[in-house]
């Protein structure tokens, strides 16, 4: 049985491509990188047996995954949790109604956009506080 260096390179690059398409948590990345390293070593040291190559690949794969898990960030939480959820950034803020709320529904101009609001009926000029969001709708309560 003969395994050439390009077999390892093909396996390694194949695993790297697979990592791009599957949400595996970077496992294929490190196993593929280990295969590329074994392929490079097999090219540099052509007399390396396939048994040694497989043992080396396994050891490098396990070591790379363990090192990555040890050094990776513990969480991927954003410092700005409401960055792409603009409605959530308005919770707790108070506004003055420019238009009356009729049948529990109205419109509220906030910054550069207009939001649909729901709550109790209120005339224009009433101060309201945003208490919750529901998609693109803000739930408000009267303050006055």
Question: What's the gist of this structure?
Answer:
With 144 residues, the protein is α+β, with helices and mostly antiparallel strands. The chain has helices at residues 5-21, 27-44, 50-71; strands at 94-96, 105-110, 113-118, 127-134, 137-142.
Fold and architecture overview:
The protein is α+β, with helices and mostly antiparallel strands and 144 residues long. Helix content is 40%, strand content 20%. The chain has three helices and five strands. The protein has helices spanning 5-21, 27-44, 50-71, and strands spanning 94-96, 105-110, 113-118, 127-134, 137-142. A five-stranded mixed sheet has the order 1-4-5-3-2, with no helix packed on it. Strand 2 (105-110) and strand 3 form a beta hairpin. Helix 1 (5-21) packs antiparallel against helix 2 and helix 2 packs antiparallel against helix 3. It starts with a helix and ends with a strand.
Terminal CA distance reads 84 Å
What's the average pLDDT? 89
Count every helix, treating DSSP H or I runs of 4 or more residues as helices. Answer: 3
Shape: rod-shaped
Q: Pairing-aware structural class of the strands and helices?
A: alpha+beta
Q: Count every beta strand, where a strand is a DSSP E run of 2 or more residues.
A: 5
- Based on CA atoms alone, the radius of gyration comes out at 29 Å
Helical content class: 25-40%
Main sheet properties: 5 strands, mixed
Order of helices and strands: HHHEEEEE
The proportion of residues in beta strands is: 15-25%
Strand ordering within the main sheet: 1-4-5-3-2
Taking pLDDT < 50 over at least 5 consecutive residues as the criterion, the unreliable ranges are none
């Amino acid at each position: 049985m003969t395994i050439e260096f390009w077999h390892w390179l093909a396996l390694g690059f194949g695993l790297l491509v697979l990592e791009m398409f599957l949400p595996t948590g970077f496992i294929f990345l490190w196993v593929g990188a280990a295969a590329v390293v074994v392929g490079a070593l097999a090219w540099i040291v052509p007399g390396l047996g396939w048994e040694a190559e497989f043992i080396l690949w396994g050891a490098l794969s396990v070591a790379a995954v363990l090192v990555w898990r040890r050094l990776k960030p513990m969480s991927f939480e954003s410092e700005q949790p409401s960055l792409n959820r603009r409605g959530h950034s308005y919770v707790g803020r108070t506004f003055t109604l420019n238009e009356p709320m009729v049948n529990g529904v109205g419109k509220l101009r906030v910054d550069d956009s207009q939001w649909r609001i729901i709550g109790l009926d209120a005339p224009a000029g009433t101060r309201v506080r945003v208490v919750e969001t529901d998609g693109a709708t803000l739930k408000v309560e009267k303050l006055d």
